[in-house]
Amino acid sequence: MTIQDVAALSGLSICTVSRALRNLPNVSEQAQARVGDAAAKLGYKASSAASRLAGGSTGSVAIIAPTATAWFFAQAVEAAEEVFADSGYDTVLISLRNRPSVQQKLFGDLAGLSHRVDGVLLLNIALDEAAMAALAESGLAVASVGMHDVPWDNVGIDNEEAARTATNHLLGLGHWDLAILAGSETGAPSLVTAGDRRRGFERALAEHELTVDPDLVINAGSSIEGGRTAMTELVENRRVPSAVFAGCDETAFGALMALRDLGLSAPKNVSIIGIDDHQMSWFLGLTTIAQPVADQGAFAANLLIERLHRSGLPNPPSQHILETKLVERKSTRRRR
User: Fold this and answer.
1) DSSP result, 126-187
2) Under the phi-then-psi rule, with left for phi > 0, alpha for psi from -120 to 50, and beta for the rest, what region is 174?
3) Of 116, 68, 118, nearest to 93 (Cα)?
4) Is the N or the C terminus of the chain less surrounded, counting Cβ atoms within 10 Å?
């Protein structure tokens, strides 16, 4: 049984369940009762900091993210950090600052980090075989968010399917001339999600017997400025498509800004959809694919704690996929 099972049975978010299991404040009596009832039925018991192995333990864990400034990573870090703190662990936040040199240096010498922390939580980082091997040899407990085909516990969404759903939404509205603003910015480490989301976009087009136009594929990273630059390039130097799939909401925000600067708007001239359900998406009327970001961070943190407490015991790595859903707002409409 995992905390995800308790959340599913109680009908509450993983973050709420995590707080309720640790008897923390800001959880209603009704929610506390639902969580307690679900946990009892499933035989689930939250780990206690007192059960941590004493020998050689630092009492600290590291959260490693491509950048600490992007909304997704900030939300996931905050949720994970709360779980770690509630379990008695200190947290070391390491930002790779979207620089390959920083990533190579960190994973090229993990000995120093292994003396400072007991485990690491990786957030959507593309690792080569050398880095994977270095982690395996480091003796660190590992869990991750947004990765796949990894030999440790992972929590995420089906990014390819999310992108396919977003693209199918545009196709269903009669848009056949589609652009994609996604992928990594030049010089930045590759994000795991970038390739998955492009494959989902291409898959949806192929299922409708359409091909990807290379002129309508632009690397935009996962930032507002990246989306703004990419959309400006698209309109000024290529052509105005009927609709745009942005790899994340922040990229979509930048695209909306570029349209405004160029005297255009969504959905009047271009329909735009993103992925995330960023807190500003509602305010800006952005149609998006919502994903439970905080729940992914909290769930992965709980898995890492369980891994630390059961060090040395047989415990095969687990993969957990959380649900996404289409949220329709004002940035998309049927093609006229």
Assistant:
1) ---HHHHHHHHHHT-EEEEES--S-SSEEEE--HHHHHHHHHHHHHHTT--SEEEEESPPTT
2) left
3) 68
4) C
Q: What is the largest CA-CA distance in the chain?
A: 68
Tell me, rounded to whole angstroms, the distance of Cα 206 from its chain centroid. 26
What is the C-alpha to C-alpha distance for residues 197 and 183, in angstroms, rounded to an integer?
A: 8
Q: Which secondary structure element, helix H or strand E, spans residue 243, and what is its range?
A: strand 243-246
- For the cut 50, the answer to whether the pLDDT of residue 253 exceeds it is yes
Among candidates 271, 268, 227, 273, which has minimal Cα distance to 250?
A: 227
The pLDDT tens digits for 270-291 are: 999 999 999 999 999 999 999 9
In this structure, how many other beta carbons lie within 10 angstroms of the beta carbon of residue 213?
Answer: 15
**Alpha-carbon span 10 to 155, nearest angstrom:** 20
Q: Give the burial class of 304: count Cβ atoms within 10 A of its Cβ; 0-12 exposed, 13-18 middle, 19 or more buried.
A: buried
Write down the mean pLDDT value for the chain: 91
pLDDT per position as a tens digit, 3-61: 888 999 999 998 888 888 877 778 899 999 999 999 999 988 765 443 444 445 889 99
**What would the two tokens of residue 281 be?**
């998406």
Report how far apart, in Å, the C-alpha atoms of 223 and of each of 68, 181, 228, 294 are. Answer: 12, 11, 9, 19
Q: Are strands 287-290 and 271-276 parallel, antiparallel or unpaired?
A: parallel
Tokens at residue 157, please?
């969404």
CB neighbour list of residue 263: distance below 8 Å, 6 or more residues apart: none
Confidence of residue 109 (pLDDT cuts 50, 70, 90): confident
Q: What is the pTM of this model?
A: 0.84
Kindly indicate the confidence band of residue 184, based on its pLDDT and cuts at 50, 70 and 90. low
Q: List CB contacts of 87: < 8 A, sequence separation 6 or more.
A: 22, 47, 48, 49, 305
Q: Which of 161, 154, 152, 148 is nearest to 291 (CA)?
A: 161
d(CA 5, CA 157): 16
